[in-house]
Amino acid sequence: MARIRSQDYDKKRQSILKNAALLFADRGFAGASMSNLAIQCSVSKATLYHYYENKEAILFDVLNQHINLLVVDLQAAELEGKAPAKKLFLAIDALLKSYENADDTHRALINDLQILPKQDRRKIKVGERIIVQYFTDIIIENKPELADMPEKSMPLTMSLLGMLNWHYTWFKQDGPMTREAYSKMVCDLFLGGLNSDKL
Hints:
By secondary structure, this protein is mostly helical. 69% of the residues lie in helices and 0% in strands. The protein has a domain at 56-194: Orthogonal Bundle (Tetracycline Repressor, domain 2), CATH 1.10.357.10. It is elongated, with a radius of gyration of 19 Å.
């Protein structure tokens, strides 16, 4: 007979993922054992194994949930009817706001994705490709001639995402710049270069 899930099963699972992201970011995947994870989560190893088969399964759930949330938040941005430049700002702002309180998870995504088995990496990559295409489409709206120039549109997209994906290394929640202000700065900087005659 299958074991009945407790009423707080999902809540405990989310707590495990949150604490695991923090530990992976702090020690790296290789330096975080299941024993370390159990201590970090304030549960026994037996409880941890009740929720997850191994450390790799935890990492996959951490990263998969993160990338799926990014996609959902981007798709929820209200871009319909907006001018191309405004769309770019709103998309940048939506991504940065989705990163809020997710620095540990994002660090794990950047540092530890390659550790996962190939089939799990492919699932994460699906979400990443959706995000890349989302921004590529908006960039092309701002400069339509790029539609036939993938050799330029892709590097431009990845350069933009690079500015956004690495902001966690310096951005401070209580610092002098808000996320919205940084979104505007990145948008203005990017569009200024995008509209250059030298591109």
